[in-house]
Amino acid sequence: MKNILLIHTGGTFGMVPTEPDHSLAPAQVQDHILNMVPEVNRLAGIDVLTPFNKDSANVGVKEWDLLSALIYEHWAHYDGFVVIHGTDTMTYTAAALSFSLRQLDKPIIMTGSQRPLSLSRSDARLNLIDAIELATLDLSEVLIVFNQKIFRGNRTKKVSIKSYDAFDSPNFAPLGEIGVTIDIDYQRMLKNNGPIQLISGFNPKLSVIPIHPSLSPEIYSEVLKKDVHVLILLGFGSGNIPFPEPDWIQFIKDALARDISVFIGSQSIKGQVDLSLYECGQQALKAGAHSLQDVTLEAAWVKLAKILHFTLDPGEIVRMFYQDWAGEI
What's the pLDDT at 27? Predict the structure, then answer.
């Protein structure tokens, strides 16, 4: 029987109807899970750790480093890892783990739930069983397992607030589905031979600006004076931004003049940003902006924060962004 480390970080999964905050204390987590889902003991030997117990809205760069270091510390002692996480920022953490822990030769499976394990009709039970079983298989990347679908973690987005079908991978088809059998597309799975590498550190000195019609860039002129090193502009369609009125091209030039790198994404979640298609995008490209291509906003933000930990040089930032670290491109 394989040994799995189950890491509980908080979120809806472990909430119980008690006062005042409806959450479990760390010491209660193991008994709660194993009592509610005893069949997981037939799948693997399971140990439980709770490094923190937070709403995922409060999970950021410090927690990503803590979680990465924890997994790295226990890597030799377990056959796989399952991380229970709140759904709201699960995709950010999945990307962070994939960029901080390289050359994996074991699976790291992330899951959670839309409804607490303690309530009837919860999706938590099946998600947990699926995640633990996946963690016993010969896989070697960070995956999100949710509603019987298997996603590459850094390609995934949360797309629903209420539905159990809460996640999607718009530009990279799911790597598998779980039903009567577990069907995995092994041909598209990452194949690493180890040894695992821990690459810690993030610098969150970057900002995202969603553009809407008639939005004046003057509203964000003060951002250029702050300690920001990268801006992500979310344009329309293939990456188009308003020009010449309002003039976002001049805003890009002003940012670049301050050594602030500018990347352009899209408010459309499917498809690839291509700045060469239309004049508005061409002007941005000519001004010196760069495309996020088909990288999700979540993965792009986390990757750029990782890059900024190592360099503030604009040319190096762009070069490193277009490297494929963990199947995110």
Answer: 47
Active-site positions?
A: 12
Q: What is the DSSP letter of 216?
A: -
Q: Is 263 helix (H, G, I), strand (E, B) or coil?
A: strand
Q: Which domains does the chain have, with CATH numbers?
A: 3-198 (3.40.50.1170), 206-321 (3.40.50.40)
Query: What pLDDT is stored for residue 118 in this prediction?
Result: 85
* pLDDT tens by residue, 181-210: 999 999 999 998 779 999 999 999 999 999
Rg (CA), the chain: 21
Structure tokens at 84: 């229970």
- Cβ atoms of 72 and 108 closer than 8 Å: no
**Whole-number Å distance between alpha carbons of 138 and 8:** 22
Pairwise CA distance, residues 91 & 72, whole Å: 20
Which of 178, 231, 183, 169 has the alpha carbon at shortest distance from 206?
Answer: 231
Q: Kindly report the pTM of this predicted structure.
A: 0.95
